[in-house]
Every structure is written in C-alpha cells, then in structure tokens.
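Q: What would this complex look like in 3D?
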Amino acid sequence: MSAFFQRIRLFFGSKQTADAPDAINGAARSQEAGAEKAASMQAQVENLDIPPNDPLLAYLISTASAVEIDKLSMNSPTLERLRQAGVKISVPLVSQGELIGLLNLGNRLSEQEYSTDDRRLLNNLASQAAPALRVAQLAYQQQLQARERERLEQELRVARFIQQNLLPRELPQMPGWNIAAFWQPAREVSGDFYDFITMPDGRLAFLVADVTDKGVPASLVMATTRSLLRSNAEKYISPGKVLETTNNLLYPDIPEKMFVTCLYGVLDPQSGEIVLANAGHNLPYQHTKEGILERRVRGMPLGLMPGMVYNEITIKMNPGDTLLLTSDGLVEAHNAQREMFGFDRVKALVAEYKDGDMVQAILQAFQSFTGPDYVQEDDMTLVTLTFQPVQSGAGNPQPITFEVPSQPGNERQAAARVLAVLEHLHLDITRQKRLETAVAEATMNAMEHGNGYNPDLLVKITVIQEPDKLTIQVADQGSGAPIPTSVDPDLDAKLAGLQSPRGWGLFLIKNMVDELNTYHDPSGSTIELVVNL
Amino acid sequence: MPEAKLTTAIRKPAESVAIIDLEGEVTGFAEQMLMDAYNQASNGKTRTIILNFSRLDYMNSSGIGLLVTLLIRAQRQKQSMFACGLTEHYVQIFELTRLNEAIGIFPGEAEAVAAAA
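A: Here is my prediction, written as structure tokens for the whole assembly.
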C-alpha cells in the first residue's frame, strides 16, 4: 500500500433498521432500490484514494469516529466525491494514527437520520475492525514480500547456474601438461572467472580475470568481458593485442568506476614457452627447481581508459615447473585476527611446493589460516599449469581419459577432443576426418544404446598412444545387452524395404579404423577403435 | 528432442529439377526438416532432386539412414537423386555405403544441374 495514498476498500451499503415503517411488499421494493443505490455508491467510492494534502484525511484521522458527510464543510475533492456518491456517514478505520479504511453508509432505508445509537454502534464496530484489518493488511504485505524474496533467490540460483556454464566445464587435456583450476564465488554469482581457449595450431590461451565488485553487477560485466576475450582470442594470437582490443571494446560499455583485471597467456605446449600480458591483475608465480619467480608484466585494467597498449613477456616453463595465477580473493582474505593472507604467504607456499596438486596445497593452507568460521569476503580463483613432459624413450604418453554426459550432440564434442589430444601427431586431414566419424559414431552408439540418452550416465573415452598405433576406447555405463556384431548393411535390401534404412553406425566405424573390437561386462560395453600409425 | 542444426532451402533451376540446399548437420534430428524439404521439392513435375551438400558441416550414420529413406521415397516417385558439393570424406562414405550407386555424385551444382537437364 502506498504510504501517501490511503486506499479505501471497505464499503457498507444502506442500513435496514428493524423499525422501518414500510409494509412487507414496500420493504421488499425498498430493499431492492436500496441495493441498487448501494451498488452505485460502491462503484463510485471503491478504491478511493485520498491525496495526502486533502484536509479530509487529517480530519478523519483526528476525529476517529463516525462523521456526517453533509454536515462537513471544507475544501476537499474527496468529500465532494463522497457526497456525490450519496454517502451520508463515513466511519474512519484508524490504526496507529494511520487511516486504513472507511466504512461508508448511504441513506437509511427509512429515510430517517442516523441516531446517536447508530453512530455509537458504528464507532464500536470501527474500533474493533480497524486493528483486525491492519493485521490482515500486514499479513498480506508479508506474504508479498516473502514471495518477492523467493523469486529473487530463485533468479540468483538461475544466474549462478548460467554463470557456472560460462566457466570451462572441463580442463584442457594436453600431453605433458597438468592443468588445475579452482573457482569460488563469495556470493551466488561472481565477478571472477577463468577460461581456456585451444587455438587451431594446438597452442592454449588461458586467463584469469577479476571484475571490480562482486555479486550481480560484477557477474554481468563478467559475462560481457568473457565473450569479448573469447572472440578476440580467436582473432589474435598475441596476448597484448587480445587485451588491447578487449579494452577498447569494453571501455564504452562498462559502467563508470567498474573495471576488469585480467592476466592472459598463450602456452605453446611443445616448447613450454608462455607469452603473457597483464591488465592490472595479480602477477603470476612460477615455481621452478631453483625457486620461485614472480613474473612481472603490467598494464592498465580493462575498461578504464581506451587506447591502452599491453606489453608482453615470454617465459619458459621447464619440466617440473608450475605457473600459478590467482585472484584477489586469495591474497586479500582475512583471518579472525584481521591479518591478511597476503602475497608473502602465497609466495612461501609456491616456493615450498614439492609435487602433487598445488591448488589443493594452497587451499589447505588457506583454510587453516582463515579458520572454520570464515565467511568468504571476495570471489576466489586459482589456476595452475604444470609442465610434466613425457621423457622420450621412457615409454609412451599416459592414456588420456575424459567423459561426456549422454546428451544428443555430445558425440561431436567427444570427437573434437580426441582430435585435440592427438593434435601433436599432425595426422593428415583424411585420417582426422575418418577418426572424427569413428569416435562420434562410437560415442553416439554408447550414449544411445548403452546409456539410453540418460544425461546422468557418462561415456568414458580413453586415448592410448603408442608409437605404432592409437587405441581409443569408448565405454558406456549401460547394463544392457552387448553391442551386436556389425551385420553389413545392404543398400539394395534397404531400398527394397527388406532392412531398416538405419543401422549404418558400426559399419561406418569398422570402415573408418584399422581394427574394431567390442567388449561387454556388467558395468557396461566398450567399443575399441585401433588406428595403425 | 534437440533442435535440428540444419537449415534447408529449395531452388528450382528448371521445372523438372529441384535443388535442396543443406546447411549444417544431417543427423537423426533433421528427419522432419529433410522430409519437409523433400515434400516441398517434389511436386508433380520434379524428375530430379539434387541434394546440395556444399554447406554441410557434419553427417552421421543416422543422417545416412535418412538419405536412404529419402531415396526410397524418390524412387517410388520415379525421381532421380543427385548429390553435389560433398567433401572427399563424405564421398568416401557414399562409396562405402554404396549410396553412390543409387545417387549420382557430382562435384558442383552446375554439373549436377547439367546432368539432370
């Protein structure tokens, strides 16, 4: 309800008194006429808004008892309206000094004046009705507020879900590289993000970024910045150029006083070289056998000023090195004693790091620093890239495994990932296409026949590389029947209606690879593709 | 069912020839779209249907199944079916499945239209 307009909803029509002198028939006619009058009056004064400067409002509040409309004299448009509607008596319903309703009565059916008793009765009624009405109004308001809160919470949950989908769903898999990431928003949604973009030539662009502020405003800017960075990453190989272009595009659109810090790098997985450019973000730390290196590269945050140029540095990752990228949420976190986690602690952790998962090691130290009652102050992101090249001659690369949910369309994603894993082999286009078809068909088979397109069931794909051959295993989680041996489809039989037009999948796979094996056990079926090199 | 990632367009370079341009993915999800395109292309006077694959992004075994269904319908209507614009990979798949014996394969649209005339 508006604080300035008292919306009057209550209305009582003409009063039929017991002492009405009319005969029975006359009374019936009179009642009908009264009901008509009442309806007309109700239409005229229903949802009556009394402007705050109308003197009637102050008068009704101050008298707080039945008022004879015809006896009032003041310059009030509302009073005029009440009169025109035929209202004879108005009884204000006042609760805690606020007018919350009016009981409006027209003429008595007997055409007699309202008596003192009548007015007393009305005043008693009003004094009891007002608090009850107030309680009902408050309960209604609370209900509305609760519904509004619930709607906002639901929207935030959806926003968080959308935002999580903007982050990489899977980490890049590259032979010789171990990539880890951690992302934790302080609220439902975050201004922090990270991303990986695989270039057509096999290089990997990676970034960690932090939008000023947190929550919904930051998450909106995050979504825009991510799209700009992604599209520029596809256009330019140079990190400095990507930041420069993104900055120029972001600047006109970003709200004043907001900006985005971003550390952006491009990794050549073969040589271990990384080109870095920085838009005002925390410097990265490189853990090496000789100790920790703070890699200094600086530039203006994105969105602050147009026309900025971003310097680049090239660093070399040696076997065993790890590069750590962080956002402010880590270093600027406080413990119960208001001490800050700080760069020195991060540096010490990176320097002390031996092996295993650096992200986990940092998170453990962070949790013991902040304590169990810690309420996260800011969004937090950690990304590490560790170079663990396979020694030549010391065996083959480790099998690479990944999973895709059983959803239509994911077969192409699976095939693209297998090709990305094998990129370093520089297979010719014919082989790539044949492999793409074989992996996609095998994945589709597993999603459809094995997992029944249940998105909770995964298809696990394993790529085993040996010097003379590649083996790709595609496993479903279905407990159904084993994969049938491929009956060669016969086009003539199909055209003659003797075979189903479908059923080409296994036939295609068999013809795309050098060897096709199928296995079945209680946990599911596996299609194994072998390609000789 | 997910949406088909396919768009189709029908062109009639001659009264007896209809070209169906296929852009995107020919997979099982494209069934309705493909059949609708065929119905539209196949009026009483159409003798040859040319499937233009020059903007094909991806075709899988279900998509090949659909081509067989299409071929059956075309043969019932005594229509010829041609294909053009296939990449080498899909030409190989047509050969493997012997679809090339039932569907005339031409490198470009002009050749297919000339052969149909």
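A: To summarize the key features: Strands of chain B lie at 6-14, 17-26, 48-59, 80-84, 104-106. Chain B has one domain: 6-116.
Q: Very helpful, thank you.
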